[in-house]
Amino acid sequence: MRWLFLLLALVAGGVAAYLAGQGRLDVPAVVALPARVLPLAPPDPGAPPGALAWLQLALLKRDPAQCLAWLEQAGARATPLADRTAESGCGLEGAVSLAGATMGKGGAVAASCPLAAAWTLYERWVLEPAAREHLGAGIRSVQHYGTYACRNVRRMAGPSGRRSEHATANAIDLAGVVLTDGRRLTVKRHWTGGGPEAAFWRAAADGACRLFNVTLTPEYNALHADHLHLDMGPWRACR
Fold it and tell me: Residue 216: which of 179, 160, 171 has the closest Cα?
């Protein structure tokens, strides 16, 4: 059903764009539609992400210039990085140095532009609201295990023959947060249980599934017992 809705949305958006270009549809009527319902439009950084946000973010990869412009519009602290080729399947292309609002303490990280865009929405519309709702405080900083690492996908049975999204800085592993009142929450300690800390992490994971292409939690396997893996790879998974 979800894919049927997506297909219908794509067709409707494409038809509207075509008719507008042909002068057969009132342009103001098209422009008046919010970005959250236009699958081919970039997401509005000033509004809560819609159901198609993951697709809108993924499409930013097709136009690096548009992606960088989006980051600037969103007020993200992002600086373009020079392309860098490493081993086969590794390296940086169209990446940025991102110092998100909550990454100040840990410093900037290298990130693909779509990952930087997804994270910008994530910390603004998921992490901060979830912390306020469940914990009564904001987020001062995040703790993560990095974005770029030239390696293959890790499996319980050993490394696979496929490069990880980390190999192109297209993933981030979120391990914990520090709240504005000084409390520290980690995935490892607070994922389970019925308290507000666990509720926060569940909300953080649910929100990630709406923005990132892949979200892997401690429910996936033991390799993710202490972090949420978030990436903008070609597949869709929420586990």
Answer: 171
Helix (H, G, I), strand (E, B) or coil at 51: coil
At residue 145, does pLDDT exceed 80?
yes
Tell me the per-residue pLDDT of 46-64, one tens digit each, with 9 for 90 and over.
999 999 999 999 999 999 9
Distances (CA, A) of 122 to 103, 152, 208: 13, 26, 7
Domains and CATH numbers, the chain: 77-238 (3.30.1380)
- Of 139, 102, 121, nearest to 46 by C-alpha is 121
Alpha helix segments (H runs only) across 157-195: 187-190
DSSP string for residues in 97-144 = EE--TT-TTT--EEEEHHHHHHHHHHIIIIIHHHHHHHHSS-EEEEEE
Neighbours of 25 (CB within 10 A): 15
Task: Burial-class residue 231 by CB neighbours within 10 Å (0-12, 13-18, 19+).
Answer: buried
179-190 pLDDT, tens per residue? 999 999 999 999
| Strands annotated E in the chain | 78-80, 84-85, 91-92, 95-98, 109-112, 139-144, 171-179, 184-186, 214-216, 228-231, 237-238
Quick check: 101 pLDDT over 50?
yes
CA dist 163 and 169 (Å) reads 11
**Rounded to an integer, what is the distance from CA 100 to the centroid of its chain?**
12
